[in-house]
Specification:
With 460 residues, this protein is an all-alpha fold. It contains 18 helices and no strands. α2 (23-45) runs antiparallel to α10, α5 (67-90) packs parallel to α8 (133-144) and α11 (240-260) runs antiparallel to α16 (349-381).
């Protein structure tokens, strides 16, 4: 068992494992995984604006076609667990090469769907194939960057991915309004083929030599197929630390969904916006906040880690990275979502619209200031299983968010936009309270349940 003290010992040896790739190679690798991380966001977020057109083409109703959204959440959770678990055995590169073809085939299947049953089936395949983008990308960055550099790289990665979440509805709405939802999914298949080509030609295996499960086999066949339990990743969340930060990040991310999911019913109705493409454009400030905020938050978390190490004379305390969440979790997120609800309710005209767009931008930045340090923290504390930890957190977070999202519009109809947004702001503050407790008692929490935590010697 890894003791509490062993986590906090200063490093005595220089880890050269992170010098395998040059800075330029590392930047290229981050570009490729960020490109792959965009895919699940686009697959998810471009679909919703197309639902009315899909329902019309398939002779179904909006409510029935909307079942594909719930199915996509399930496929995303299952796929993330599968690709992450197998990446610890076969390697990151192989999981990209195996996963992306599912996306390409599924996208073509969705584009050619002639019935609801075929749409549901191919939508599951499509989402399953691309769902490894986030956990695999986090694992890759943990493989190639040192502790003090990791936050900045994670910031770039998450920034690109979350930017896609905000841009995709605009593109999906524009496609639904002016193009074809079928052509949109053919385009996603083409994107997948480009990603597959990039990975095959220029993406190396980043896992540390000798750490993969297949490397430890004494005998193996030329084609060696092994069963890896994808649900084993969920067992990592028995750690109070990992469960706490997963819950905190979920409570903060709920504010994003509270603002964005009902946008057509809140900002759209309040300010008389009916065009789907213009509604989609209202998502852009949030995406811009994500894109700008994530690299800043990542660099800030690296600065915080270095400064606290200096204060402790080289001793590494993993929870120090979480101190970078304060400005986002206590100020930017709760104030932006609460203010948006009040502005939508009481401020009309162009002034109200512009103030709401400012709130969306601020919320995008604020969520990153919480989400990014937590993502880096997950990689820090279980670096050898970072993809699995990220996937487990994402899977449970997806299930919670799907339930919370289903309550947003009914809540707005029952108690109004202002109170719904204020409740979301309170939840975000509760999440920050959980982070405070994790910072304060992190050492005791790690000592209570050991899930193979990293030490300074294997994580510097």
């Amino acid at each position: 068992m890894v003791s509490e003290d062993s986590l906090l010992l200063p490093s005595t040896t220089h880890e050269t494992i992170y010098d395998r790739f040059s800075p330029d190679q590392k930047r290229w690798i981050v570009f490729i995984v960020s490109f792959a991380g965009l895919l699940p966001m686009f697959v998810s977020a471009t679909f919703v604006p197309s639902i009315p057109q899909i329902a019309k083409d398939l002779g179904s109703t909006h409510a029935v076609v909307s079942l594909t959204v719930s199915l996509s959440i399930l496929a995303s959770a299952v796929g993330a667990l599968v690709w992450a678990a197998y990446s610890s055995f076969y390697g990151r590169r192989w999981m990209y090469l195996w996963g992306v073809p599912f996306l390409c085939i599924g996208s073509c299947g969705v584009a050619m769907a002639a019935s609801l049953k075929s749409l549901l089936f191919w939508r599951f395949v499509q989402t399953f194939g691309c769902s490894g983008g986030i956990p695999l990308g986090a694992g890759v960055i943990g493989d190639i960057y040192k502790l003090e550099e990791r936050g900045t790289a994670i910031g770039v990665f998450f920034g690109a991915s979350l930017f896609g979440f905000a841009v995709a509805p605009f593109l999906g709405g524009a496609a639904a309004q002016y193009w074809s939802w079928r052509n949109l999914h053919y385009s996603l298949a083409a994107w997948g083929l480009l990603e597959l080509l990039l990975v095959y030609l220029s993406f190396p295996e980043t896992s540390h030599p000798g750490t993969l499960g297949i490397d430890k086999l004494k005998r193996r066949r030329w084609i060696h197929i092994t069963w890896v339990n994808p649900l084993s990743s969920l067992w990592l969340l028995r750690s109070p630390n990992l469960f706490a930060v997963m819950l905190a990040s979920t409570l903060v991310l709920i504010t994003d969904y509270v603002l964005l999911v009902p946008l057509a019913y809140t900002i759209g109705v309040r300010y008389g916006i009916a065009n789907e493409a213009i509604i989609g454009a209202c998502f852009l400030p949030n995406g811009l906040g994500n894109f700008i905020g994530a690299p800043i938050a990542g660099r800030l978390s690296d600065v915080v880690i270095r400064r606290w190490q200096e204060k402790r004379k080289g001793v590494w305390f993993p929870e120090d990275r979480l101190r970078a969440t304060w400005i986002g979790g206590l100020v930017m997120v709760p104030l932006s979502v609460g203010a948006s609800g009040l502005i939508t309710t009481y401020v009309g005209g162009p002034v109200g619209l512009w103030l709401n767009l400012l709130c969306l931008y601020t919320n995008g930045m604020g969520v990153d200031f919480v989400f990014n340090p937590i993502g880096s923290y997950n990689v820090d504390v279980v670096r050898s299983r970072s993809a699995e930890a990220t996937a487990a957190s994402a899977a449970i977070r997806s299930l919670i968010l799907s339930a919370a999202t289903a309550l947003v519009i009914p809540s707005i109809e029952r108690i109004g936009v202002a109170w719904t947004d204020i409740i979301a702001a309170v939840l975000a503050i509760i999440g920050q309270g959980i982070i405070f407790l994790t910072i304060r008692y992190g050492d005791r929490m790690r000592a209570s349940v050991d899930v193979g935590f990293s030490t300074t010697e294997n994580n510097s």
